[in-house]
Amino acid sequence: MSSSLLQSRVPTALSFSSSIAGGTKPQWRFTSAPAVTFTRRTRNSTIHAKIREIFMPALSSTMTEGKIVSWIKSEGDVLSKGESVVVVESDKADMDVETFYDGILAAIVVAEGESAPVGAPIGLLAETEAEIEEAKAKAAGAGSSAPSTPAASAPSPPPPPAPVAAAPTPVAAPVAADGPRKIVSTPFAKKLAKQHKVDINKLVGTGPFGRITPADVEAAAGIAPAKSSAAPVTAAAHAPAAAAAAAPAKSAPTFAEIPGATIVPFTTMQAAVSKNMIESLSVPTFRVGYPIITDALDALYEKVKPKGVTMTALLAKAAAMALVQHPVVNASCKDGKSFTYNSSINIAVAVAINGGLITPVLPDADKLDLYLLSQKWKELVEKARSKQLQPHEYNSGTFTLSNLGMFGVDRFDAILPPGQGAIMAVGASKPTAVADKDGYFSVKSQMLVNVTADHRIVYGADLAAFLKTFAKIVQEPDSLTM
Amino acid sequence: MQSSFSLSLSSASPITGRSDGGATSTAPDLFFSSTTTPSQLRFCGLRREAFSGCKSSNNALLLKQLRPMKKISASSSRNGTPSKGFDYDLVIIGAGVGGHGAALHAVEKGLKTAIIEGDVVGGTCVNRGCVPSKALLAVSGRMRELQNEHHMKSFGLQVAAAGYDRQQVADHAQNLATKIRNNLTNSMKSLGVDILTGFGTVVGPQKVKYGKVGESETLITAKDIIIATGSVPFVPKGVEVDGKTVITSDHALKLETVPEWIVIVGSGYIGLEFSDVYTALGSEVTFVEALDQLMPGFDPEIGKLAQRVLINPRKIDYHTGVFASKITPARDGKPVTIELIDAKTKELKDTLEVDAALIATGRAPFTQGLGLENVNVETQRGFIPVDERMRVIDSKGKLVPHLYCIGDANGKMMLAHAASAQGISVVEQVSGKDHVLNHLSIPAACFTHPEISMVGLTEPQAREKAEKEGFEISIAKTSFKANTKALAENEGEGIAKLIYRPDNGEILGVHIFGMHAADLIHEASNAMALGTRIQDIKYAVHAHPTLSEVIDELFKSAKVKSDVPSAVAEPVAV
Predict the structure, then answer these.
(1) Which residues take part in binding NAD(+) (chain B) (predicted)?
(2) Which residue from A191, A209, A234 is facing B335, i.e. has the nearest CB?
(3) Which of B340, B361, B382 is the last residue of a domain?
(4) Are residues B220 and B273 in the same domain?
(5) Substitution target from A185, A186, A192, A334 for chain B, most B beta carbons within 10 A
(6) Are residues B461 and B533 in the same domain?
(7) Calpha distance B60→B234 (Å, rounded)
(8) Is B260's CB within 8 Å of A229's CB?
(9) Is the pTM of this model over 0.90?
């Protein structure tokens, strides 16, 4: 420190906190001493009235942080008003800082060689011995920046702005850290910090290796993150998903709250369903329905039921056989630019389970016979119940079947799962009066199937032709058992 | 309105017996070599693949028309009769852009020519340099434009968030390199140039052997030999290149990753161009420059403006006056670490922790294993010493007969098109016509957005020369802001600067920073190559509205003393 330098300095504004604003003028060792903030600031005046925090003073108008060169007093020393307590290095010079309260230096919060932003507590002053323990506890609780840190650990300038472990105070909350650390911030983060006047030394980096990223600075400056400049797009499909995900964030609609409502968060499965449903909105779909007489199918079902064949297996087999003839319905549109023709026909079947929805997949449904399919289906359902399904067993479908016929639903339409070209919704088979081509009425079992498809790749005529083939297979089901 | 004329002059340069040895240079390029640090120069433009232009000795004009294909096959028959006692008239070691340019010109001159290549045809420029980098820069230019909402709005355009697919960008660069490489190979094959595969070694005067590593070697004799082995990225000691996180331009051009934060060591042409690519693709960049200012080698005024446009507003910061003394690749979960030491005091100043580092500290000549000891030649820092006619100088300071070195390997001017021009100059000499290349008229360009280009001297270089030789210089400047076409494109940022002699109107240097600067420079470089003076070229007419009017304005704003006689006194009606 240099007194001559100090003598020549113009006194800068004194900054005291409000609690001592009306107090007596403190004594200074130097006649032209700069401002020293040395205040009593307590969080809870009724309890800690006698413990005062010693703050890093603002020694010059440009100073934002100071480094503790040395503590003149040690913990436990009795201080009297006007005594020098600590030497602080500012951006311009080293200076003694004095106390203008009598008391005992109870705890040193910022050790020698460490730095603290202006206004951060650097030590605690107790009024009586009885309060020393309390003050120490407070200091210890405040952080690990213990006074035991040797001064030698401090590197030469520029000083690492070791953030002071904050005592519980409402001051510009400095960051708790394990001690001196290197501040790493990216070039753009630095630019933003300068632009928004954010002290980068006070930030905690959330980027790789703890570096401060532009987003950290933006968060500290309280501004909305800039639009991502050049995010690589790996698949075009991500874009709509991202857009959809961003949409609620932008204009989160507020719904009226109805008193007494319970909020149950989604399970993982439900969240996945929700995500898929949102994603499905980006696909232009259309629907085509078709009535199918099922008397022959029902007769066949009765015949094979004892052998363990389920209706699901029958429908899956029929759909798969129809898909063989209409590969475009088994295709998918992954990038909005091309058809992806799948080499195998994997029929996913929607199953409601445990409050969720899952689609176990019958792979190569066109190649397996009815009995094997039925067996496979049984296995899959078991696995689904016990949550043992492997990802490929529920996400490898190329066409989905959804059947609500057992509930008596006569028709419904299904939402096309992302990544597939079409989904078939099957209603209940009901006795219906039908007229044949000669005009004779008769009562037949008839079910309505309704297919939802991605119109980017599957057109109306494709779907109609597929349904015609499907209906023919169902109405003359002998081929199913072959 | 007649807008174009087609000239068809053929290169009818008479063959007048060789002027061997002794001829002294009339246009020494000592000035250039004394003021340029070759290691900082590295950028290139590619000479037309199939046809090469020809520059004859200083200030002489030689125009050539593109030949129809018929004539090429006719000329291929000319590659058939070597001089007595030799396998070939000319053997070129290295099939880069320099060797290629020399080979094509040699065939045209009736020399039986062979070219030896140990790697792939096209060399650095085509495979690992200017060509693929242009593909990446084409992408970065578009990204930059699409991302600039303000720019787009000023056109009334609305663009949704621009994105890119890294692999497709990388493929574009690779495909371009492959295509140009095939063009180059085909152009030589169609002319009948023998492409010999393997590493070439000089075994004695007029003798070369070649062969693949581990295989038998073939000895061939040639009347003249040109070494055109080029260069490789220079990696300073202390730097550990792993090809993944610490990379050179060779790796960077493959664009295998786009790191979030990359340090670029060196702010020359390579570094600048890559900073343009990386920032456009979303990376943040930190430059490490050993000199006290960024972009050394540019005219200071251009450099200052370029920094204001290309560095300051982008996600770039920099450390100047420091060396990267130690660079350790990312491993064991630790980032890439870079130790910076003060360039003067060598004290440790800082340690950077980043995702990747690109070493762009220049290029080192690739001259090892050439058998130079067999002809008593010692390299200087790896460069092969040559005179102004590219004739190789041995360790005693004597010329090695029939041995020439062109391109990066001689370090005179490390540019692809300079190598090609040097090759053509050598071919002119060996086919009997003295020729000295004027390096001061060779343009250079940096393909950032906007581009930077230059030819001739920078202002400090010109002032130094003026003081030494006792003449005055003047500076003229024009801004792109005054150009209609630039304003239509909303690209008014940029200047053109002319350094000239007011006493005789000689152009000493032209520097351009702005849209399409790399294309605009040629009016100035051609004028310099042909010795055209300002008082003459200022009467040339430019189409309106075009960016070329920036250069037109530049010439018109120059103040040449009125008593200087002008070649074109009056417009001549034709």
Answers:
(1) 266-273, 289, 362
(2) A209
(3) B361
(4) no
(5) A186
(6) yes
(7) 37
(8) no
(9) no
Do both B323 and B376 map to the same domain? no
Annotated binding site of B for FAD: 134, 200, 229-231, 408, 414-417
The Cα B285–Cα B271 span in angstroms is 10
Contact call for A187 and B166, based on CB within 8 A: no
pLDDT tens-digit map of A384-430:
887 778 778 888 899 999 998 888 899 998 999 988 999 999 999 99
pLDDT single digits (tens) B346-379:
999 999 999 999 999 999 999 999 999 999 999 9
Q: Tally the residues of chain B.
A: 574
- CA nearest B359: which of B244, B254, B249? B249
How many domains is chain B built from? 3
Cα B115 versus chain centre, distance:
21
Q: Is B246 within 8 Å of chain A by CB?
A: no
Same domain, B222 and B111: yes
Query: Are B98 and B407 spatial neighbours (Cβ–Cβ below 8 Å)?
Result: yes
**CA–CA distance, B193 with B95 (Å, rounded to integer):** 11
> Does the interface ipTM go beyond 0.90?
no
Q: Which domain holds residue B136?
A: 88-233+364-431
Whether chain A has a CB inside 8 Å of the CB on B147: the answer is yes
Judge whether A143 and A114 are in contact, CB under 8 Å: no
Domain membership of residue B573 (yes or no) is no
- B166 CB neighbours in chain A (<8 A) are 232
Concerning whether A392 is annotated as a catalytic residue, the answer is no
CB contact under 8 A, B282 and A186: no
For residue B166, give the nearest of A188, A209, A232 by CB distance: A232
Distance from CA of A195 to the nearest CA of B (A): 12
For residue B7, is it within any domain?
no
In a domain, B12, yes or no: no
**Rounded CA Rg of chain B:** 24
Looking at the structure, tell me whether residues B213 and B275 fall in a common domain. Answer: no
Specify the amino acid at residue A25: K
